[in-house]
TrEMBL record:
<keyword id="KW-0560">Oxidoreductase</keyword>
<protein>
    <submittedName>
        <fullName>Uncharacterized protein</fullName>
    </submittedName>
</protein>
<dbReference type="GO" id="GO:0016491">
    <property type="term" value="F:oxidoreductase activity"/>
</dbReference>
<dbReference type="InterPro" id="IPR036291">
    <property type="entry name" value="NAD(P)-bd_dom_sf"/>
</dbReference>
<comment type="similarity">
    <text>Belongs to the short-chain dehydrogenases/reductases (SDR) family.</text>
</comment>
<dbReference type="Pfam" id="PF00106">
    <property type="entry name" value="adh_short"/>
</dbReference>
<dbReference type="InterPro" id="IPR002347">
    <property type="entry name" value="SDR_fam"/>
</dbReference>
Length: 308
């Protein structure tokens, strides 16, 4: 009898974990031949899986990240898995505004098209600062992508219809923005939540500004993904989180599905400015849909990154 109870309990736990990890796959097989895709942080995790999927559809894929060695290795893997040699690396440090400006200048000189921009790179809740004295989470997750998108917006409009897909997180719901201290960095987890809320406001305001101009924008919660984000923390934390991620988090391939869906599917075009999870529109807390706050954040961000 004890053995039977053990088997049943194990089966229950297994099925529960499977249920927690259930996810939809992007079923749209639309080709992207002749299209150019830029993915920040495309050398690992969700970004790399997204790069593989879009390269398989025939897109020219540019991955932008800091580490040249890891990026070149990732480019080789993406080419092999996708059977597409049109995959390239360009150096970009989202924690440095000068690097972002230099990257955009080089990209615009080299690439004549930009059809899909995927703001994928991100920093977890770390207590650190960017080269421009912004808190690392807010500086990279929001301000870095804000400046990058704005500097490339002209090319996106030239190549319309085009899309901007920005990764966020459902953790946005645990914090609100404080315009007296957008650079808040006292509790890193709070800063992370605020940066993910900023991604949502950014997407909404971008969609509003680009209405009728052929550029659509989407914020995507990829789910809780088993990736390499723990590399920024202690060994003990990493060991504990490896167990937690194995049990409850989904693989990067599954985490990338909603991103791929928003990048390729025609179903999403009527939801510009929307928030997506599990390959479908998802609801937001009322405070995260405030158009006035979204506009105020946009104007504040313009001042912070000195965008003329």
């Amino acid at each position: 009898m004890y053995l039977l109870y053990t088997v049943l309990a194990s089966l229950f736990c297994f099925l529960t974990l499977k249920w927690l990890k259930r996810r939809r796959f992007c079923t749209d097989s639309k080709r992207l031949d002749g299209k150019t895709v830029l993915i920040t942080g495309g050398n690992s995790g969700i970004g790399k899986e997204t790069a593989v999927a879009l390269a398989m559809r025939g897109a020219r894929v540019v991955i932008a990240c800091r580490d040249e060695g890891r990026a070149k290795k990732a480019v080789g893997e993406i080419k092999t898995r996708s059977r597409n040699v049109d995959v390239f690396f360009m150096e970009l440090d989202l924690a440095n505004m000068r690097s972002i400006r230099e990257f955009c200048k080089a990209f615009l000189q080299k690439e004549k098209r930009l059809d899909i921009l995927i703001n994928n790179a991100g920093m977890p809740s770390v207590l650190d600062w960017t080269d421009d004295n912004f808190s690392m989470c807010f500086g990279v997750n929001h301000l870095g992508h804000f400046l990058l998108t704005n500097l490339l917006l002209g090319r996106l409009k030239e190549c319309a219809p085009s899309r901007v897909v920005t990764l966020t997180c459902s953790n946005y719901k645990y914090q609100k923005l404080d315009f007296q201290d957008l650079n808040y960095n006292l509790f890193p987890l709070f800063t992370y939540c605020r940066s993910k809320l900023a991604n949502i406001y950014f997407t909404q305001e971008l969609a509003r500004m680009m209405e009728g101009k052929g550029v659509t924008a989407y914020a995507v919660h990829p789910g809780y993904v088993h990736s390499g984000w723990t590399c920024h923390f202690s060994i003990l934390f990493r060991m504990v989180m490896q167990v937690v991620m194995f049990m409850f988090f989904v693989p990067c391939e599954l985490g990338a599905q909603s991103v791929i869906h928003c990048a390729v599917s025609d179903e999403v075009t009527g939801h510009s400015g929307g928030y997506f999870a599990d390959c479908q529109p998802a609801s937001l807390r009322p405070f995260a849909t405030d158009a006035g706050v979204a506009r105020k954040l946009w104007e504040a961000s313009e001042r912070l990154v000195r965008l003329a």
